Amino acid sequence: MEFIIPTEAKELWGEGAGTTGLSVSRVVDLSGASQGELEEVAERITFQLYDRDPLGVVDQAFFDDLVGLVRAFPLLSESRRGLLVDGLASSLTCLTSWTDRALASREQDAAGTAQHRSALRAHVFFLSWLVRQWLSLREGDAASQPAALQAAKPGPRKRTVEGAAAGSEAILPTAVKAAAASLNTDLWALFRPAGPDEQLLLCYSLLATSLLDRPAACRDGVAVGNAGHVLSALALKYGREESVAAGLVELISTREHSPGPVADLLRDSVAKWGSASLASAVVGGLAAVDPAEYARQQSATGEKAGVRSVAVFFEELAARLPKLLARHVSLLLSHLGGAAHTLRSSIVTASGLLLQRAFEREDEEESATATAARLRGKQHLLDVLTQRVRDTSSYTRRACLAAWQGLAETRTLPLGHWAAVTDIAVGRLEDKSSLVRREALRLLQCLLLHNPFGPALPVGAFAASLASHRAALEVLAPDHAEDEFQGLKLEGGRDGATEPGQEGEQGGAEAPRIKPEPGTGEVPLPSQPAPSSQRRASASEVAPAAWEGSLEELKALVASLELATRFARTLAHTMPLLAQLLASASVSDVQARETVAFLLTCKQFGVDGVEATTRRALPLVFSRDPAIRTRLVEAADQLFVTGWAGNLFTPAAAARNLMDLASDATLGELSSLAALVKEFVDRDFLSPAVVLELWATLDRASGPSKNPAAQGHETAVRHLRSALTLLSYVVAAAPEGVTSGQLDLLLGAGLGSADALAWYCAAGPAVDALFALHPEPGRVVAAALRALSSRAAAGDGRDLGPFFFLLGHAALAQLVYVDGQAKRARRVLAGVGRPAGQAKGQEADAEDINAELGVGSVAADAELEGQRERAEAEILGPASPLAPHARLVSAVCHSRALLTGDPGLRASALLCLVKLMAVDGAFCSAHLQLLFTLLQNRGVEPGLRSTLAVALGDLALRFPNMLEGWTERMYRPLQDADTMVRKNALMVLSHLILNDMMKVKGHIAQLAVCLVDPEPRIRALAELFFHELAKKEVKGTSPIYNLLPDILSNLSADSRLGKADFQSIMQALLGYIKKDKQGDALVEKLCQRFAASESLTQWHNVAFCLTQASVGVAVEGLLPISDKGLRRLSESFKMYRRTLGDAEVAAAFASILAKAKRSAAKGDVKALVEELEARMAQAAEERAEQGEDPAAGDAVKSEPCEAAVSSLAGQMDGLKVETGQGDPTLDEDRSSPTPGAPTIKPDPEAAQEGVGVQDLVAKFGGGLTLRPSRSRQGNAEGIKAQPFANVEEDGSSSIPALH
Fold first, then answer.
1. What is the pLDDT of residues 327-368, one digit of tens each?
2. Of 637, 684, 627, which is closest to residue 658 (Cα–Cα)?
């Protein structure tokens, strides 16, 4: 009896078995057998499968035993399961050979054919049955595995499970391999005339799809190929294309690992069977899904894998079957309007791959119609990429830029699109997404590396060559502008199918769009240019006096030069954008690396403006991210020291590059250069030959620089400054490599220059090198100061400027030296203080005990700190050689006659004064009054006042407790008439406040006024300050929330501030309140302001703040108020009832209630709003009945504001500042009240004596008095003010730099 595959396996032994074909006659039940008996039966049957005739599988006895064993398959061990499947697969392979021979033999009868059919069905059925059971077991193991792992030891159990899984994974490939081989048999001949059974084909399909469903099995390329062969044969040979395609579509839509294997399957099916119908059916099935379904998957939790898998499949298929996908690309483009950004990104990526691979000319004899169709398809995809760069999703915009990059790398980007794509990339540098910005940098670098215009891209050379050749073209063809080769157009704006609302979200400039002239498709240069014109225009080409080539060649050259000029100019215009990216506070490591890499490429191609932008990249050497710092140092090494392939620098060239970098550098750039040179030395990037070249340059320049009449004096002075600067950095980084002769040369060149500007530039590096190398730098500096003072006394005072400079710089250098020695001593103590083998925990316990006893490393640290303080005090102490000079500086700065004289002398003296103040606390305290007086003196130059404002910031960092009493004076420069003074003061205060070096309470309103400063730069800095301040939340409370009442009070009392400015400031600040809880509390406090104030102006201001509320609905930039806030507003009605007589206040409350009505969703809220409206109306009626003036409140009369101000000024007399808890109305605003905040309280004595504010100022703060410097007693032990002899200096210091 012939075996027929049942629908379900139990039909073989259940009721009705045997009615249609071979079935079980003897049921073998092994469920109750022992494991040994099972193993024995399995071994016997497996051996028979290997050993006996494959046709014997349908013998009744063996068939019954095999069915019984397969039913007991879950009870077998993993090894026996694998052997059983392998035995069946081996038997099926043998059967395939027998069947092929039988079909080829003409002697085969019908009975023999039926026996082969029956055996084939049985083998395939048993294999599929075993695979189904194995899959069920694997799913069960996966479900129970976490519990088993928790019950057992993690390590061994995990390895056991993984090992078993790895061994059993061979079952599927083995079964599929045998099935694939059996399909090589002509089943049409075997199953003639009806064809293969449906159930047999389903079993084949189950085996193949089961393998593709397993990620582990799909890693085996051979197994995937076998599964693909099975499915391809079923679809293309046995008419199951629709079901196979549906299965593949389902597989792609549910399994993330499937896109690659399925794409390989479809590629192999096209190659082996010569038919693309299966691939077309799969593409059509995926494209037929509603875009809304993909959008739902994109947003649904747990279903994103489906749309991601489909997206990856389109990319994989575009890489494997580009021409087939190009024929169906219209089906995909319809999904560009869908909301699934993952799918849009994949379609864009696939379009880029199609442009690379699907539109090559394959036939040299291609017809004109085919060429036009091919070019139209290509142009359409180019337009898609141009449009999608403005997609709403940053992922799609990034994919679009990556697609352009692929076209540039493979040289498939049309030349006419080159400049336009460059414009697109430049525009994306301003994109709001860092992903897009990084991809734009990569695209620009790729365009530069693969540009067809030449290895050098200076705009000037291209423009000159273009003008020359264009003039020649005008002579030969005056009407060339109308020629077909000038058909390239650039169109800006939002052409194409962009989505609504995307313009405001993408954050960049619009990208231009290239279109050809109608009917031309793409716009190539002349099709057959001569060899000379095939060379793209390079910067070295010069137009000939008379053109000797053809007109077509000249037109091609002009078109190429136009594109090259535009490309070079666009790259030059990119440099400022790169500088902005590098200066961004949010620059990431990846973005910084990409920017630096692009700068390096621009340098190699000679792009205009790259040198200045490279300087802007140097501050990245201070980045806290090691990856950014490393990339910057490596790029700088290539740019200035080593060079790159094909352009390696000699030591002389490297020295020149570094000196050019130091020449005309700003102070910030010099600081960056110092850190960069230290990195070079630490990483051995700076070779000894380069350092020797710098010494040689210094030696050559020292002579001519001292003689103004010498030839090349200016060049020598410039080289002297640069070499001295660089060598001082090298010496500070590696002082052990400097000889005594080099030190003499350094000091002689630095302190002996005759040129004033050269002296100032060289003296600083010389002093730094002196303190790094000389065993007694204090003695050398003292001698130089005596010499300069003697020259100044004997001359006309012109040497006082250098004297002051050297004095201030030497004092700071000595302070840095002391601090460095203290750090070095602390590191030594840390290294020897812990016994070998002591654990960190034990060390911490020992430290606690030592701290209590006053011994050990804690005591050593305290002693070391005391020595450091004493050494710092000796710098300007009585015994110091700098002390008499410090008194001279103080006298000069107090002398009005000298300060009103030479501006240079005034600047030198004041800068020296602030440097000495930074060194010594007593000296600083004695001269703070002078410093603040000069800062307020409009007779002092704005530039010098700006410098003093910065110096105050440095002093506040150095002596924060000393400057705390002068906080109010530090805010005064914000009101200066000069823009630079206000800007510097704002930057200093922002730095101090944001770094918690200054209390923000009390004077923050003056910073808020900067939000309406007439200077845009100052407004931007103020906005940045409040933006950063809002981030410094404490226990979930924003500092701005706590400061708003104080700001409101101070701004309302500021008579200089107009109403519009007040409203603009408060609107900006209220936008930083994001939480309903804070908004509700703020409403209550604003209502309290109505009760506490009698000023009509303040009523209006408070009412305006309330109108900025967003009731019930969160709106960006508005104060959020919940239903609870509305209830507080209603409960506080008595506080503002009397103010409702004012029309402006009443209108404000009406606006609030109108917002509440529109957003009220609950019935009780609506009732609350209606009740509040009724109470307000009743209050208005009562006031009307009483005949009160509705324009005036209960206490506010029509007295002018001047009278109110005078009254307030009268109340201020007799007040003094004490330390307390501040305004009691602000207590609830503080999340953590700051003790010691200033509070104004009446001074009884002043009130009795009638002493006013002006009298107090005259009594305690008026006039300037020359005070002698305080003398100090005591000698430092251990660390001396005089530097140690022969001690290595690490160059680091915690002392802030003075600018």
1. 999 898 889 988 899 999 999 999 999 999 888 877 777 788
2. 637
